[in-house]
TrEMBL record:
Pfam families: 2-Hacid_dh (PF00389), 2-Hacid_dh_C (PF02826). SUPFAM superfamilies: Formate/glycerate dehydrogenase catalytic domain-like (SSF52283), NAD(P)-binding Rossmann-fold domains (SSF51735). CDD domains: GDH (cd05301). It is an enzyme of class 1 (oxidoreductase). Its EC number is 1.1.1.-. This is D-glycerate dehydrogenase. Gene3D superfamilies: NAD(P)-binding Rossmann-like Domain (3.40.50.720). GO terms for molecular function: oxidoreductase activity.
Length: 324
């Protein structure tokens, strides 16, 4: 009888996913859901055939080149893979996969949620109520803005941005503008009534809401900086459901403090789980704890997608979602 491959799952996953994996692999789970430190990750490299990591696991060159490593595949749980050194993985002969597509709708829903919360000042209102500071209804209390008919500027125009655009256009009659390194096919632009801006600066100047949907990495680090924020209208709102380092958080906090933009809705941060203290102090900032894909449907589908990649690898088939 052939021994089952040994698999480490670094964080707790939805119960159906863990049960599914346990049927196919000699699986080590993490019932305490505590992040693994570097020593634990290095040790795991020498004891397992496969690791199913998440974005909380920084797997760099030193980890990947651990003496005696026997891991053959990293089946990443998540669409992003900036926490894994892909070049080092390739050099070590370790396959890397991700879980695209299955979190599109959930993340688009959250982007719309952040737009509404920031525009209607819902975060401020809830905090005031919970503090016991609400003195009752009055005509000029905490007035926000409607997003109906406003211009939505999308930075990046992949699957999540397009799903966000559809909800914004169909649900709120928003005008769709976007900027991307590569222009979308005409049929997609036509379907969403979307127009590509000449450059990011032009998009920022036009948008009532600027929503970020770019990948991470050096090319997009602090893409939204003080200069770019200065081009936004004073009534504009910035939304980030993409990657934390895309935004210069100190510059954003300063702009909010000085009233140079009206608000922000963030689900991701540069130094998670730490939030920049100046940003956390801003009443006009809606701050969520990385909930983009946090529906039971999406989180389960992500786990099953990672499992599909593992199944394909150990069956000798082409990997559905190979990134390295």
């Amino acid at each position: 009888m052939t021994a089952m491959p040994k698999l480490l799952v670094t964080r707790r996953l939805p119960e159906p996913v863990e049960a599914h994996l346990a049927e196919r692999y000699e699986t080590t789970l993490n019932p305490g859901d505590t992040p693994l430190d570097r020593a634990a990750l290095a040790d795991a490299m020498t004891r397992y055939d496969a690791i199913l990591p998440t974005i909380t696991d920084r797997i760099d060159t030193d980890i990947l080149t651990t003496r005696g490593a026997c891991v053959k595949i990293l089946a990443n749980y998540g669409a992003g893979f900036e926490h894994i050194d892909l070049d080092a993985a390739r050099a070590a002969g370790i396959a890397v996969t991700n879980t695209p597509d299955v979190l599109t709708d959930a993340t688009a829903e959250l982007a719309i949620t952040l737009m509404l919360m920031a525009a209607r000042r819902a975060g401020e209102g809830e905090r005031e109520l919970r503090r016991g500071d609400w003195t009752g209804w009055r005509p000029t209390h905490m007035i926000g803005r409607s997003i109906e008919g406003k211009t939505l500027g999308l930075v990046g125009f992949g699957r999540i941005a397009q799903a966000t655009a559809k909800r914004a256009r169909d649900g709120f009659g928003m005008t769709i503008r976007y900027y991307s390194r590569s222009r979308a096919p005409a049929k997609i632009e036509d379907a969403l009534d979307a127009r590509c801006a000449d450059d990011l600066e032009a998009l920022a100047a036009e948008a009532d809401i600027l929503s970020l949907h770019t990948p991470g990495g050096a090319a997009t680090h602090h893409l939204i900086d003080a200069a770019l924020i200065a081009r936004m209208p004073r009534h504009a709102i910035l939304v980030n459901t993409a990657r934390g380092p895309v935004v210069d958080e100190q510059a954003l906090a300063a702009a909010l403090a000085e009233g140079r933009i009206a608000g922000a809705g963030l689900d991701v941060y540069e130094d998670e789980p730490r939030v920049h203290p100046l940003l956390a102090a801003q009443e006009r900032a809606v701050l969520l704890p990385h909930l983009g894909s946090a529906t039971i449907e999406s989180r389960t589908a992500m786990g099953m997608r990672a499992a599909d990649n593992l199944h394909a690898f150990f069956a000798g088939r082409a990997l559905p979602d190979r990134v390295a």
